[in-house]
Amino acid sequence: MSHSGRMLFALVGGIALSCLLPAAALACRCLPPPSPGFGMEKSDVVFVGKATDVETIEADGWLYGSFKQMMGSEQMYEFETIRVTLEVTTPIKAADESPLILETLASQEQCGIPFQTGKEYFVYAYRSPQGGLKTDMCTRTATVAKAAEDMADLVEK
Question: Considering only CA atoms, which of 39, 59, 46, 45 is closest in space to residue 138?
Answer without folding.
Answer: 39
